[in-house]
Specification:
The complex is a heterodimer of chains A (168) and B (396). With 168 residues, chain A is mainly alpha-helical. In chain A, 73% of the residues lie in helices and 2% in strands. Chain B has three domains: 72 residues, no CATH class; 156 residues, Tetracycline Repressor, domain 2 (Orthogonal Bundle), CATH 1.10.357; 131 residues, Four Helix Bundle (Hemerythrin (Met), subunit A), CATH 1.20.120. Chain B has a three-stranded antiparallel β-sheet, with no helix packed on it. The chains are: A mainly alpha (168), B mainly alpha (396).
Chain lengths: 168, 396
């Protein structure tokens, strides 16, 4: 869990910039008139869809808390998966390169069979077991926390609307 | 064998140097256009050995997903509609709720095909029970089981968003695409679970409701996280698959008899050839997303259990008449079906590749409904039930 947190802090800034740049460079445009949250196409590395959370004009403290929490969790997820996926493809390339070297020295080049590749898949999964455990526990905690916060925001909004209606 | 124009393609694959005995296999896109309408058709290159040419041509799966597209070609008839569709998925989109599409979202959230399979197995469990047929009980049981299954699937998707985002198979789920909020999905699940379990408890009996609640917890709280913790997840998943026919039987009898256990046993065993063959082609994605599936962590065990459990189905089908669940015709009729299933599992065991695994997976989808139907046709109690009914009529 410590590892995950450290790597989150390291990459926070990087990710803010990244999301901002993505909204600029992406082929598709971010809708300008934002009255709602907007969701983008999946990131090419992390595979996660970026969300730009809408800031309402008169934001109450609980709404702000919810918005900040969402942004924080999004960045945390983005960092984890972009690191993880980069690692996967780097190690996979290394593995196939090693394989090619080994066989080219024997002067008989053979393509990677799926059985040989599965050695890598197992290795990668086993090596990252602990990372995934930590990520999973942390994700469950964050996800459920966010759900409860969303529930509180909804209750708050309903109460606010009710007040306005009863005044009329 | 290598055509000169294809040579540049070969150099793109870093681990392969061109050699005369290698042929380059070219294929176009591998995803169904329905599931991923925005994908551009791609030519995918795979170097293959001449010796393995037969049966090594995957049609839809991992071997190609590992490869780099060598070129991206626009569709020949790039009509306006396809362009429209493309921009829709690649665009930034306001996260507003499209109320018109709500029924469709709910169906997706409930994994409607999986839910209908669950409902069918519970109906089969109900029909197999040796008691007079009662339409209202059957309907209550189906609706209740279906709603509990919807709740389980919606909760599962709530927990899995970042993981689902990683895999092509699950990338288009409603929560991943932000069509519904997580709170909306969980509320849907809560309503389904409450209604479903109430129908089972008040409309049928406590045993069925308990089985339903157990399965809901087993699936959402045990199985879902376990996929990333332990190889045992397939066994837990198999138990989850085996409980619906027990619920059907329990809603008819208010107890569990040998017929219920036979059917649950068949469903338990069926999960292994079904799921192992499916997961075989998803190994790269499972590895990256952190799923500890048997096909990745222990491929040998994956092959062996597949074969073992298909043989188990054969044995269980023959045991059905011994335990007075069906007549002897069932054993006779099911032998060819189960023998072919076992034969496909044997082929998968001997030579596990995308071809054999896909064949096995496809047949598993046909195998289960046929076996259930055979079982119902040859039910032992059809005749005695009629007599029982007559007897009752006579008394009244």
């Amino acid at each position: 869990m410590v590892n995950v947190r450290v790597c989150f802090q390291k990459h926070t800034f990087h990710n803010v910039i990244k999301i901002w740049r993505m909204s600029l460079t992406s082929d598709s445009k971010v809708p300008k008139a934002m009255n709602h949250d907007v969701i983008g196409p999946p990131d090419k590395i992390s595979n996660l869809r970026p969300v730009i959370v809408h800031i309402p004009k008169q934001e109450s403290s609980i709404e702000k808390q919810f918005r900040l929490k969402r942004e924080e969790i999004q960045k945390w997820n983005e960092t984890f998966w972009s690191n993880h996926n980069t690692k996967f493809f780097e190690q996979k390339e290394k593995f196939t390169a090693n394989h090619a070297k080994k066989y080219s020295s024997e002067s008989s080049v053979s393509p990677m069979t799926s059985d040989e590749m599965s050695v890598f898949y197992k290795k990668f999964l086993d090596e990252n077991w602990k990372t995934h455990q930590m990520y999973n526990v942390e994700w469950y905690r964050k996800n459920i926390g966010l759900l409860l916060l969303a529930l509180r925001v909804t209750v708050f909004k309903v109460a606010r609307t009710w007040k306005i209606i009863s005044k009329l | 064998m290598i055509h000169s124009t294809l040579c540049p393609i070969l150099w793109r694959l870093p681990h392969v140097l061109p050699r005369a005995s290698h042929v380059l296999l070219l294929r176009t896109d591998l995803y169904s256009t329905k599931a991923t309408p925005t994908r551009k058709p791609q030519i995918l290159a795979k170097p293959i050995d001449v010796g393995t040419l037969t049966n090594e041509i995957p049609r839809h799966g991992s071997q190609f997903s590992e490869l780099e597209p060598v070129s991206i070609i626009e569709p020949v008839a790039s009509t306006k509609t396809s362009k429209k569709k493309k921009t829709r998925d690649d665009d930034w989109r306001e996260m507003t709720l499209d109320v018109k599409k709500l029924p469709q979202y709910y169906l997706m959230l409930s994994k409607s095909r999986l839910t209908s399979l669950v409902v069918m197995t519970s109906m089969a469990g109900y029909s197999l029970a040796p008691a007079p047929f009662d339409l209202s009980t059957l309907l209550l049981c189906s609706v209740g089981t279906g709603l509990v299954s919807c709740a389980a699937n919606a909760t599962n998707q709530f927990f899995e968003v970042p993981f689902d985002s990683q895999m092509a198979r699950t990338r288009n789920r409603v929560l991943v695409k932000g069509m519904l909020t997580p709170l909306h999905a969980v509320s849907f699940a809560a309503v389904c679970a409450t209604t479903g379990l109430s129908i089972l408890y008040f409309g049928i009996n406590g045993l069925t409701a308990t089985l339903g609640a157990t399965n809901l917890i087993l699936y959402t709280i045990v199985y879902t996280p376990m996929k990333r913790f332990s190889i045992l997840n397939t066994w837990v998943g198999a138990i989850v698959g085996a409980i619906p026919p027990l619920m059907g039987w329990a809603s008819c009898m208010d107890s569990l008899g040998s017929g219920a256990w036979i059917m649950a046993g068949i469903l338990y065993a069926w999960q292994f050839p079904h799921f192992n063959s499916l997961s075989w082609n998803l190994r790269p994605e499972y590895s990256r997303a952190g799923y500890r599936m048997m096909s990745v962590t222990d491929p040998g065990l994956c092959r062996r259990t597949t074969l073992r459990y298909t043989a188990g189905i054969l044995a269980l089908s023959c045991a059905a008449p011994v335990l007075d669940v069906t007549n002897w015709w069932f054993a006779l009729e099911s032998i060819p079906l189960n023998a072919y299933f076992t034969y496909l599992a044997w082929q998968f065991h001997q030579n596990s590749d995308s071809g054999t695994s896909r064949k096995l997976f496809r047949f598993s989808l046909v195998h289960l409904p046929i076996l259930m139907i055979l079982m119902l046709i040859n039910k032992k109690e059809w005749s005695s039930k009629k007599q029982g009914k007559d007897g009752q009529d006579g008394k009244s």
